[in-house]
Every structure is written in C-alpha cells, then in structure tokens.
Description:
The protein is of the alpha/beta class. It has helices at residues 15-18, 21-28, 65-78, 96-103, 120-125, 142-153, 201-219, 221-230; strands spanning 2-8, 32-38, 51-53, 61-63, 83-93, 107-111, 129-132, 186-187, 190-191. It is built from eight helices and nine strands. The protein has a five-stranded parallel β-sheet with strand order 2-1-6-5-7, with helices on both faces. The chain has a two-stranded antiparallel sheet with strand order 3-4. Residues 87-90, 112-114, 116-118, 132-134, 136-138, 140-141, 144 line the site of S-adenosyl-L-homocysteine.
Amino acid sequence: MMHIDIITIFPEMFQGPFSVSIIKRAIEKQHIAIQLHNLRDYATDRHKKVDDYAFAGGAGMVMLIEPVDRCISALKEKRQYDEIIYMSPDGLLLDQDLSNKLSLRKNLILLCGHYKGIDERIREHLITMEISIGNYVLSGGELAAAVLTDSIVRLIPGVLNDETSALSDSFQDGLVSPPSYTRPRSYKGWDVPEILLSGNESKIAAWKLDQSLSRTSIRRPEFFDKLKKNK
Ligand code: SAH
C-alpha cells in the first residue's frame, strides 16, 4: 500500500479534500494511507514555535529547520521514503507524467511551507524533490499537496472503478479528451453529435480520436508538436 505523509502546520486544511469522493474511497479500500503530521507537535519550546523572523530582515516569517528535521527524522525511523517533497512555487512543474511516476512510488513525504517559506537549509539537506502546481503563489503548500495527492491517488490501480477511465483522461496519452455527452439527446435544440448515437463503434472511435487530435492542436499546441516528434 502506498503511504503519503504530509507535514503541515494546518492539518485541518486537508479534511475537506480527503474526506470525500475518490480519495476517501481509496483510503477506505486501503489503496493508500495518508497521514497528517502537525509540525507544532515537533516544536521544541513551550510556545510550540514553528517559525521566526528572517535573518537580515524582510517581510514574512520563515519556518524553522529544527521541527521539520525532527519530524522527518521520526518518519524515517518508521519507513524508507522514495522522495521527500517540498511544495514550492519554484519547483518542478507538476504534470501528468510526474503524477504517473510518483503513483508508482511506495512512500512519500510532502512538506507544506507557509508564510514566507522555509529555511533554505531544509531544502538543501532534507528535501529530495521540489514540486510546484503552477506559476502562481499560494498562501501555503497545503492546497498544492492536496492537488498533488489527488492526481497521484487516482492513478493507483484499483482506485478508479472503471480501470480504463484514468487511461482515457486528458494528457494520459499526450492528448486532451474528446467531448462527452449524456441524456437528453436534444436540449433546447442543442443536439448531441449524430455519430455518437449511431452505434457504429469503429466510426465512433475514429471520431473521438479526431476530436482529441484537433482539440489538442488548438488547446495544447505544445503537446501536439511533441506527439509529431515522437512519431
Ligand atoms: N516566498 C516564497 C513563497 C512562499 S508561499 C516564494 O516567493 O517562493 C508559502 C508556501 O506556499 C511555500 O512555502 C510553498 O510551500 C507553498 N506554495 C506557494 N505557491 C505554491 C505553488 N505554486 N506550488 C506549490 N507550493 C506552493
């Protein structure tokens, strides 16, 4: 079973995303164990301090190395980790390839920063990988860690009901998904494409591929160029 340990000063931020839908089911079915670790429990002083002013000034508090080190060390005593990941706006940009790779790992630690960030020595000495969920700045790493966890968990075999459904998602084959329709066939005169009602499986497959290709070329031209190169 895959193990994800998340280190955070706001464990309650994960309650929503992890207690519904696919992640909830994956936890119940024991495809994944997610443990939240409150960094404050590893603080050394009686005020449970986890951050301090930056040396040489500057706005914003910086998270202390000592509680982080103590927490990671305690976790490492229990199991071996494939990656110790810091969620960081300047990290490796998350994409489907990276989620696929991480979904094959056994044990991961995700460290969430907050405020101004974390003491650089944590990144230099304790972290093995840094991941960003996009080129924008969040208040903390918690939402980013929830996004990363979600994108990984749905790829673990057995998590999705229909085994093929992750495979047919956008990006999984380097293409975006074709459009989907459901009942009613006609709504306010807006009709479902006739071909999808034809029952002709090979024509439908060809139509879907054609839609995926044209959408990819318009919406993600950079993916399209990559596909052409790989051919
Ligand atoms: N001063 C930092 C930003 C700190 S934001 C800088 O300019 O790089 C506070 C925390 O939010 C960070 O420590 C990081 O853990 C998290 N964070 C913010 N934006 C993120 C993003 N796009 N992806 C992943 N984590 C992010």
